[in-house]
Known about the structure:
- This is Fe/B12 periplasmic-binding domain-containing protein.
- InterPro entries: ABC_Transporter_SBP, ABC_transptr_periplasmic_BD, Vit_B12_bind_prot.
- Keywords: Signal.
- Helices cover 39% and strands 16% of the residues.
- By secondary structure, it is an alpha/beta fold.
- It folds into two domains: 135 residues, Nitrogenase molybdenum iron protein domain (Rossmann fold); 129 residues, Nitrogenase molybdenum iron protein domain (Rossmann fold), CATH 3.40.50.
Amino acid sequence: xxxxxxxxxxxxxxxxxxxxxxxxxxxxxxxxxxxxxxxxxxxxxxxxxxxxxxxxxxxxxxxxxxxxxxxxxxxxxxxxxxxxxxxxxxxxxxxxxxxxxxxxxxxxxxxxxxxxxxxxxxxxxxxxxxxxxxxxxxxxxxxxxxxxxxxxxxxxxxxxxxxxxxxxxxxxxxxxxxxxxxxxxxxxxxxxxxxxxxxxxxxxxxxxxxxxxxxxxxxxxxxxxxxxxxxxxxxxxxxxxxxxxxxxxxxxxxxxxxxxxxxxxxxxxxxxxxxxxxxxxxxxxxxxxxxxxxxxxx
Length: 298
């Protein structure tokens, strides 16, 4: 029996061990498993492209969607469509071993089609400030770039803590964040932008709304009388429609000339760059707060 046991042990020792399996749970609650770190990655959203670069996986990207324009290196990557419409044949040609998708931004049917074709799809939903480090951790695990992701998380959390310490406990300022003009759209309470407003010591005047980019009416804005109006628009240029608020001087923000613009890429993209937008927003809210105090002292 001893000789038989020795033979079995020797045979076992000669077997090639299986590589460790990488496993993370995506935001659908699905277990995503890889036998080894992903080497060919496709991103299906501009914010996810940014997150992959920050997590140290930029060199592994082989395809992205339109508007994946940051960092600059992303502009040279092959395009596979836009966030809501993909060229599946092109995706297959690029032979990804991992596709990173956006839960509420990409069509569910397309994600399912990619999985039915045998592709591994990690689905993310980085909705809030505290979800950005979580996504960096998981993307770093999937790409085998944990050290880069960890360093980025440290930087992010240090900056976030500094802003929270400086601004969050200040006297509140009523803020209306305008996403679009026709129809009039804002940011509700279950969005990244709401997190930014609260981080800066502001109150989102439509924070009770749970819908994504809910539509509101002018009368509701007038009733809430914001002390700061922040507009985003669609690119880095100040939208012309922001000037229409001059027609309503009864609004405190208009009377105090506190109607401002911030590049939407810095307030609506779910990446560490959002803290650059937070810095700007916090300064704008601080200015409105100072005017509020001046008015109270008169």
